[in-house]
Inverse folding.
């Protein structure tokens, strides 16, 4: 009796987890099937028939209907260009807030705090108007502009810089190094972990971003993957071409899924830190 | 945060001779005082913060008191806000949003904790089990929605195939009045639950092991262990997860866009989608701005509440 | 320092690029931004891009940059936003019904001067039904391009299977119900094939209203006319609802426009109403014999409204660019070119000359389905809603239809409330309504 209870206690959670996992996995598998098996057979025939009719036609079609290669390039430019800029802005600002004394520090700290409270997606309307005035619509700088100052990144770096021992800084300073040199040679080398964490969050977030790019971009040379995919879904009014849509989805998500599989641990801890975002 | 405002700090005056090393750095005298350097360091961030976070807040409040009349935007005082409380479609939008927010918090907390507990059993190959939940966090919502569009499709989708296979009555999912919003919510949950579970997982792993071990030895039930030991211990995380799930729920639009565009008959129209529709499709800038201001007010309140709570509860520095 | 020298080189390179491009700009061709949507099934974007490539190759002085912007709604939203922010595209394909909105915001220019210029266009060659949505206040504002009427698509194999004549689609509402009932296939409680599907969509519904004797808007040039709550308008929506609940030949619940071709191809329904623009993709994708027919007639006989997109030239872009845009449009609507477009897409080539020109002439002889929409034009009228606040009134009408399809409201309730909301918008937009 007691043994049964113990077994039950041990088995149930595993079963529950497996059930959870199944719910999470099935849509993904169905998408794979939808991309590799012709739709009519997927709906009407048995799995045995599916295996015989695996094909890559949907990928060819999707690839043909939308310039995914170009969209990839655009997403890369947007995501990594923005990241490069952000790493500079958050390091500088985080450093100033962590290691320097100046008038108005509290007030400036509060200004950053505002951004934590107000996510950029809420401000699409006024930000769109600003971009229009700047004539930055359909440009990469327009795409990046609302994210160049990152309160999340700034606070993350401020936190990290605060933990660097004072002695390291003072040694460098007494050698006559400028602040910029101190930041570059002393602080950044020991804060790679938070920089990486920020990078993972920033890249994932912007790789997936949709609404803002949808509003800002119009040309194929700027339009990122997510918008391209949504156009494939909504525009083609295809409906009929489920296989194409599934193939397009797979084309878009594969890099991210591979990335997660490779850096699962790092990803987990980065995202736990991102809650303050 | 406690640092008092200081005078310009001028004690660092050595290093004169090194100035040319940082020639590209325009403020040569900057090295003399950390004060001036600090402003230079902060400048890039502050400029973009001012233009793309602070100014928009001011400008959207200003726009919310104006409305289009012919081609002009004219001052209409509180008219846009009055409409927020009388227009039946806006009422529907607010109701839908409220559903998302409350259901979102409930499922984020209960589902997130449950999933975290399951993942925290010390199973081998936990990475394998964790992967699907992590993957959905990282997938673009647009892709997730595309996947579910296919699953929900009433005549060629997987769900109705399954129902038919089980001999159950078919459902209209996104195309029916009652199920559309819950069906949409499931998509949101599928994507985000792993994210919420991550925080609980971190909290659980930080719990003192001896407390849990002792509890097991005392032979209390799973439920008691959960209710009286774990739940109180993870309450800061619960608060935190609630906050971010409200923030998240308020911003949901991507999957509305792909799956239903707010239909049928506004059954799935939500605050941010409404802003998009009014602002970018019908150019009722005033109405869209008023809705934005409401969202801002909610977010600010949330942030302040959380701040007060954290000040009281934990040290977050 | 090496850093500085790199910096220096960069600056020199950038400046020289600026100088070179700046200096060359005098001979550079005019580059036109061209916004276009795709609203039906099929890879139409490539077809259009292909034409543009050909145009660019044959015109040294004009280069057109095609920008595919999604479906009609997205495309219009984008164009409007661009106009409002003072950065309009140069030329765009937008819904013919967007005319009033565009004129109202002074976003487009009248084209009569171009039509009669030394690059003339025989505007009388275009079918009247299409021109009715392209003119206002005696001026031509849009040139028909991807124009359509909805038609009935049916599965001939299914017709044969249940003993119906595959060459005779239903001609009346009664026949629609009768045929539909025969075509439904049940497996226990589950319907495995429906008889018919009409989308819960304003454009689809508007046809049924016309067949019942009520055009939902003005047939003339009145942008303030919306007639959603008349007995005939209500009768049409009541009929559509009866197909779901009383006759059970159409699935209950919302029926989004885009899912119809998928259901039809998969054999989940035997008949659908869809744009003629979907013809090419359906011909390619259906695994059965494809039949096409007129929309079944109601108490007022056959009826359909036209639809689709026109070319517009934007205001505030300068005369030089407007001239170039006209050259582009005029090239695109040449009879043989627009005939080719009709073949590639399925849209009705909107001018008579195209049907007398190769390649469309032989194609129409080979593929009889291609002519259905053209012959239906005889019964076709101006598209709804050609009104003030058109996009929003379209949405309101659509929501009313969805409310009825999902059983939330009765046709009377839904349409009366839609009428009230439309009136509000019309008044806000400057209309003076009688009551």
């Amino acid at each position: 009796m007691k043994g049964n209870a113990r077994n039950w206690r041990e088995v149930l959670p595993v079963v529950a987890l497996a059930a959870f996992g199944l719910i999470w996995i099935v849509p993904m598998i169905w998408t794979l099937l939808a991309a590799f098996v012709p739709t009519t057979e997927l709906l009407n025939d048995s799995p045995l028939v599916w295996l015989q009719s695996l094909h890559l036609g949907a990928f060819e079609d999707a690839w043909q209907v939308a310039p995914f290669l170009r969209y990839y390039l655009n997403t890369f430019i947007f995501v990594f260009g923005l990241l490069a800029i952000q790493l500079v802005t958050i390091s500088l600002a985080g450093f100033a807030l962590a290691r320097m004394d100046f008038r108005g520090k509290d007030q400036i700290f509060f200004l950053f705090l505002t951004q934590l409270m107000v996510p950029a997606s809420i401000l699409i309307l006024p930000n769109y108007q600003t971009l229009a005035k700047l004539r930055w619509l359909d440009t990469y700088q327009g795409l990046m502009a609302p994210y160049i100052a990152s309160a999340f990144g700034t606070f993350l770096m401020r936190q990290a810089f605060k933990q660097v021992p004072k002695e390291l800084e003072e040694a460098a300073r007494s050698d006559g190094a400028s602040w910029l040199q101190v930041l570059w040679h002393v602080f950044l080398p020991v804060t790679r972990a938070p920089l990486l964490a920020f990078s993972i969050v920033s890249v994932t977030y912007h790789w997936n971003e949709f609404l803002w790019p949808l509003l800002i971009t119009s040309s194929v040379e700027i339009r990122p993957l997510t918008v391209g995919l949504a156009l494939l879904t909504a525009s083609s009014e295809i409906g009929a071409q489920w296989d194409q849509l599934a193939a397009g989805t797979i084309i878009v998500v594969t890099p991210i899924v591979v990335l997660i599989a490779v850096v699962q641990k790092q990803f987990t801890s980065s995202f736990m830190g991102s809650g303050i975002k | 945060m406690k640092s008092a405002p200081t005078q310009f700090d001028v004690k660092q005056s050595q290093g004169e001779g090194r100035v040319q090393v940082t020639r590209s750095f325009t403020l040569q005298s900057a090295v003399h005082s950390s004060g001036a350097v600090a402003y230079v360091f902060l400048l890039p961030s502050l400029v973009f913060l001012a233009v793309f976070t602070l100014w928009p807040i001011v400008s959207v409040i200003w726009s919310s008191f104006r409305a289009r009349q012919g081609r002009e935007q004219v001052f209409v005082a509180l008219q846009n806000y009055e409409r927020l409380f009388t227009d039946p479609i806006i009422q529907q939008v607010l109701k839908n949003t409220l559903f998302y927010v409350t259901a979102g918090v409930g499922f984020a907390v209960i589902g997130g904790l449950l999933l975290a507990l399951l993942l925290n059993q010390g199973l081998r190959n936990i990475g394998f089990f964790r992967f699907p939940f992590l993957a959905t966090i990282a997938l673009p919502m647009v892709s997730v929605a595309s996947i579910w569009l296919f699953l929900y499709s009433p005549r060629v989708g997987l769900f109705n195939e399954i129902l038919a296979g089980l001999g159950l009555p078919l459902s209209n999912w996104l195309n029916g009045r009652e199920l559309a919003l819950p069906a949409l919510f499931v998509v949101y949950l599928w994507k985000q639950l792993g994210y919420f579970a991550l925080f609980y997982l971190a909290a659980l792993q930080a719990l003192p092991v001896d407390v849990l071990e002792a509890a097991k030895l005392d032979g209390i039930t799973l439920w008691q262990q959960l209710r009286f030991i774990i739940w109180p211990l993870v309450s800061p995380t619960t608060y935190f997860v609630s906050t971010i799930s409200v923030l998240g729920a308020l911003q949901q639009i991507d999957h509305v866009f792909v799956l239903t565009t707010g239909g049928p008959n506004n059954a799935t129209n939500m605050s941010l989608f409404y802003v998009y529709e009014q602002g970018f499709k019908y150019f009722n800038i005033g109405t869209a701005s008023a809705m934005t201001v409401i969202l801002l007010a909610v977010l600010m309140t949330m942030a302040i509440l959380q701040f007060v709570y954290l000040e009281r509860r934990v040290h977050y520095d | 320092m090496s850093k500085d020298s790199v910096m220096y080189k960069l600056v020199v390179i950038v400046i020289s690029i600026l100088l070179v491009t700046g200096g060359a700009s005098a001979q550079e061709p005019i580059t036109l931004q061209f916004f276009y949507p795709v609203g039906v099934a099929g890879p139409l974007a490539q077809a259009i891009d292909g034409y543009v490539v050909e145009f660019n190759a044959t015109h040294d002085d004009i280069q057109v940059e095609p920008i595919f912007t999604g479906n009609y709604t997205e495309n219009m939203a984008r164009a409007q936003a661009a106009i409002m922010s003072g950065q309009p595209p140069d030329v765009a394909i937008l819904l013919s019904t967007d005319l009033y909105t565009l004129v109202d915001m002074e976003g487009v220019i009248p084209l009569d001067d171009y039509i009669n210029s030394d690059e003339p266009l025989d505007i009388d060659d275009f079918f009247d039904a299409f021109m009715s949505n392209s003119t206002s206040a005696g001026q031509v504002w849009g040139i028909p391009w991807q124009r359509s009427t909805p038609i009935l698509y049916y599965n001939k194999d299914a017709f044969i299977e249940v003993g119906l004549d595959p060459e005779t689609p239903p001609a009346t509402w009664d026949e629609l119900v009768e045929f539909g009932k025969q075509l439904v296939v049940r497996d226990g409680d589950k319907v495995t094939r429906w008889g018919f599907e009409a989308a819960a969509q304003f454009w689809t519904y508007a046809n049924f209203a016309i067949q019942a004797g009520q055009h939902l808007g003005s047939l003339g040039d009145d942008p303030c006319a919306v007639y959603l709550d008349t007995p005939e308008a209500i009768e049409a929506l009541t009929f559509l609802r009866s197909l779901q609940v009383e006759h059970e030949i159409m699935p209950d619940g919302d029926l989004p426009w885009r899912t119809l071709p998928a259901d039809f191809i998969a054999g989940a329904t035997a008949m659908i109403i869809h744009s003629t623009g979907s013809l090419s993709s359906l011909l390619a994708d259906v695994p059965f014999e494809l039949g096409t027919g007129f929309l079944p007639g109601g108490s007022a006989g056959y009826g359909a409204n036209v639809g689709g997109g026109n070319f517009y030239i934007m205001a505030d872009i300068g005369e030089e660019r407007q001239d170039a845009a006209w050259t582009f449009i005029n090239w695109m609507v040449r009879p043989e070119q627009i005939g080719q477009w009709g073949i590639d897409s399925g849209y009705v080539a909107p001018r008579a000359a195209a049907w007398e020109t190769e390649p469309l002439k032989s194609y129409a002889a080979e593929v009889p389905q291609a002519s259905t929409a053209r012959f239906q034009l005889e019964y076709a009228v101006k598209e709804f809603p050609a009104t003030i606040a058109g996009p929003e009134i379209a949405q309101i009408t659509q929501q009313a239809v969805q409310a009825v399809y999902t059983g939330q409201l009765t046709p009377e309730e839904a349409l009366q409330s839609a009428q009230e909301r439309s009136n509000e918008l019309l008044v806000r937009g400057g209309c003076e309504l009688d009551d």
About this structure: Residues 18-26 of chain C have pLDDT under 50 and may be disordered. Chain C is about 45% helix and 15% strand. Chain C touches chain A through 36 residues (CB under 8 Å).
